[in-house]
Design brief:
six-stranded mixed beta sheet, Endo/exonu/phosph_ase_sf, RNA-directed DNA polymerase, nucleotidyltransferase, single chain, about 20% strand, alpha+beta
Length: about 400
C-alpha cells in the first residue's frame, strides 16, 4: 500500500506495501500512503478520522492483464485534492495533488501486474509510461511496476525494465530506487529484486530511498523525503536580472557550478600510456640521428646519409632489445594463476589468422596485402560511382517526379 505524509518540518515521505493496521495512526501528521494492491485489510486501515482515501477499483482484464485496483490514503491534515489520472491501459493508477510551500506536487500510485507480458502488453506499457510522465507539474509515480533492470540494483532485467530504461533515457524523468531489494520471493530458486520504485521529474531536494522491514509483507516498504524548505530557499535566492551584465554574470556562475559538479560527479582515472617508454640511451641516439639528417639535407653530403642510415639500424636494434626486456619483466612479475596470467597465456596460445584471399571485380584472386588493398579499393570505387550522370534524362525525370510528389 502506498502512502504519503507531510511532517511539521515540511518533509514528504512515501511508504509502499503497508499491511499493518496501525500504519496510519503511527505516522506523524500530514502523511500519505499509496497502495498499488487494494485488499480488504488495506481498506480497513484507510478508515478512521485521521485518514482520507482515494481509490480506484477495477477488477477487469485489459490486454490479458488482470487489474485489481490501487489506492492512496492521505492524512486529513494534509491539503490535497484528487486529480484525474492519465487514461492508462495496463498500468493501474490513481493520483492526488498536494499543496506545498514550494508549489503543487502530484503523487500517483501505480501497479503493473507483470504477468502474461506479450508484445502487445509491452507496447501499451510504453504508452502508459509516456502518459504518466507527461505531467508538467513535479510528480512522484510510486508503486510496484514489476520492471527489473540492473541500473536500479537488480541481478537481471526483464522486458518491462528494458522498456522503462529506454523511456527514462529519452524523457525528462529518473528512477529512484533503494540500495537493497524491495521484494523477497518465497521460492528459493528466485532472487530478490528491486521492483518497488519511484519515477520523478523533480530531483532537486530528494534524500536517498530507504527500505523498512517493519511491515508484514513479502515487499519491503520504501521511504524517501523531499526537502521543501530547501526548494523555497533556492527560489528566494534568485538573482534579479536587470541588465546584460547581470545576465552574463549569472551565466558564468551557472557554468562554473555545472563544471564543478561534473568534476566531482565524473570519476577520474589515470591514463596509462600504451606506447613504449624509451630509455635515455635511445633518446640520445634519436637526437644524434636527427642532427645527421639535418646536416645531410643542408649539405647533400652522402657520408651524412650513410651515418644516418647506420644510426637508424642501431636505434631499431636498441628498441627491439628494450621491447624484449620489458616483455620478459612483465612475464616475471605476473602472479601465478591470476587473471592477467591466464589472459596472457590465452593470447600466446591463440593463433593469429590472416585475411583469406579475396576475389576482385575482375574475377582475379588477390593473395598479397597489396593485391587485397587494390581489390577493396576497386570495389569501393565502383560502389560509390554513379551509373548515370546528373545530366542524364532518366535522372532528371526521377528528380522531377520526386519534387512533384
Amino acid at each position: 500500500m502506498p502512502s504519503a505524509q507531510v511532517t511539521p518540518n515540511k518533509k514528504y515521505s512515501d511508504w509502499f506495501k503497508s499491511t499493518n493496521r496501525n500504519a496510519v495512526d503511527d505516522l506523524p501528521n500530514d502523511d500519505l500512503l499509496p497502495s498499488e494492491l487494494l485488499t480488504e485489510m488495506m481498506l480497513e486501515i484507510f478508515q478512521g478520522p485521521r485518514a482520507c482515501r482515494t481509490r480506484l477499483d477495477q477488477i477487469q482484464t485489459v490486454a490479458s492483464v488482470v487489474l485489481k485496483g490501487v489506492a492512496i490514503a492521505v492524512n486529513a491534515s494534509l491539503r490535497h485534492k484528487n486529480v484525474p489520472s492519465p487514461p492508462t491501459k495496463v498500468i493501474e493508477s490513481v493520483a492526488i495533488s498536494v499543496d506545498t510551500p514550494g508549489g503543487e506536487i502530484v503523487f500517483i500510485s501505480v501497479y503493473f501486474p507483470g504477468l502474461n507480458v506479450t508484445s502487445h502488453v509491452l507496447d501499451q506499457y510504453k504508452k502508459d509510461i509516456r502518459l504518466l510522465t507527461s505531467i508538467k507539474a513535479p510528480y512522484y509515480i510510486c508503486g510496484d511496476l514489476n520492471s527489473r533492470y540492473r541500473m536500479w540494483n537488480n541481478l537481471s532485467g526483464n522486458a518491462a525494465g528494458f522498456v522503462l530504461y529506454q523511456e527514462m533515457s529519452r524523457r525528462p524523468f529518473n528512477v529512484l530506487h533503494s540500495a537493497t531489494p524491495t521484494y523477497y520471493p518465497s521460492q528459493r530458486d528466485r532472487n530478490p529484486s528491486n521492483i518497488d520504485i519511484v519515477l520523478s521529474n523533480d530531483l532537486l531536494a530528494i534524500e536517498p530511498v530507504l527500505t523498512s522491514g517493519e511491515l508484514m509483507s513479502d515487499h519491503r516498504a520504501i521511504e524517501f523525503t523531499i526537502q521543501v524548505e530547501h526548494i523555497d530557499d533556492n527560489i528566494n535566492r534568485l538573482v534579479p536580472l536587470n541588465s546584460t551584465e547581470d545576465i552574463n554574470a549569472t551565466i558564468d556562475h551557472v557554468t562554473k557550478v555545472i563544471r564543478h559538479a561534473m568534476d566531482i560527479a565524473i570519476p577520474r582515472k589515470k591514463s596509462k600510456p600504451k606506447f613504449l617508454r624509451l630509455n635515455p640511451e635511445i633518446i640520445d641516439l634519436i637526437k644524434a640521428k636527427n642532427r645527421l639528417s639535418r646536416k645531410w639535407q643542408r649539405t647533400g653530403d652522402v657520408n651524412f646519409l650513410r651515418s644516418c642510415s647506420s644510426m637508424i639500424k642501431l636505434i631499431k636494434k636498441k628498441i627491439k632489445i628494450l621491447r624484449n626486456t620489458n616483455w620478459s619483466s612483465k612475464l616475471k612479475n605476473l602472479d601465478f594463476a591470476s587473471k592477467k596470467f591466464w589472459q596472457t597465456t590465452k593470447l600466446q596460445k591463440n593463433k593469429s589468422f590472416e585475411l583469406p584471399p579475396l576475389k576482385g571485380n575482375d574475377g582475379m584472386i588477390a593473395y598479397t596485402n597489396q593485391q587485397k588493398s587494390e581489390a577493396l579499393a576497386s570495389t569501393f570505387h565502383k560502389s560509390h560511382t554513379l551509373t548515370l550522370g546528373f545530366g542524364a534524362q532518366r535522372t532528371e525525370k526521377l528528380v522531377a517526379s520526386s519534387i512533384l510528389h
